[in-house]
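Pasting as-is:
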Amino acid sequence: MSASARNLLRGITVVSLEQAVAAPLATARLADAGARVIKIERKGTGDFARQYDKFVHGECSYFTWLNRGKESVELDLKDSKSISLVRNMLRKADIFVQNLAPGATARLGLGSEDLRHEHNHLITMDISGYGESGPMASLPAYDLLVQAESGLCVTSGTTADNPTRVGVSIVDIATGINAHGGIVQALFARERAQTGGVGLKTSLFATASELMTVPYLQQLHTGAPPVNAGLAHPSIAPYGAFPTRDAGKKVLISIQNEREWQRLCDDALGVKGLRDDSRFKTPDLRVRHRAELDQILAEIMAQHPRSVVMQRLRAANIACARVCDVADLVDHPQLQTTQCMLPVGQLARVVSPPVAVVNDSQPPGPTGVPATSSGDLLGAVPRLGEHTAAVWAEFGNEATC
């Protein structure tokens, strides 16, 4: 990330009692933009996400992704001196983020409402599983549990009786993105109006529920759930994934109007008689005879390597995509990556942050768009407690609020 991107929030200080994915993602975005993020970790063990795996040169893939550019402070929050240290940090902080169990920070004397009364400039963000009230507020709420409770697993499966987990921790990730957006909105309002801070809260279940808005509305207003279609579309055909001659390598097409249907038959597939087949003359007929049409298309595409099928589809301006595996993503021509330093002193290549700062002072690239700042090193991933001594030296001798 370039210096211009890292300057957007320079001078902003974040104190975070965080673990796992949602809160660390929110604060990682703030750190990427130049905020100072002080991450408080449990003494002796740290954020349990450090132990999820050891895939990145012996470091955890999750922790590498979500904690670059932060300061790690190892504290025993049952110790009064450690609590005093946190309170001293909060005197100078702009933002406080926490995703401990509901009520945990209040029991430590660090409840967000009390902190805002003590520090009227402070923006607080509380992230929970099912919210802070209601019959499920105190229950464990990991990503997959909330996917299941929200109906997301059922809508992701190929059939309603074959529910499927979304392949990444989508609820955790979306919750972190929501939290980041809320924090930035509150920070902007505070800076523009020169008013005090604000209390914010979100939850995994609130995020998952919003992701399910369209299925929810369909169920609410029709009394029927959406049809599970896998990679197909319940009301459009042909729309779905088809095999090629390369084993396991599929292509996905999306035909949404008659012009595209004609180009698919005549130009991409070279089967001009197909569009005049009485079974497939209109969109509704193609949906009605989807199984027959899909079989015909599968047989045609299976005769050619995926690269050839994609070349013909793109030449005919057909909306299409490869059904890529992760190995394809690693070598994807559109993928942008950067690097961060690991605690072991080794660089790790990671996916670049999805929002880049446009540098208008640089000449446009070959596509005619201004250059973006996505190529420089991200902040380093801290070892557990790496900044503890420095933070004690900075804040430990201040008068407690």
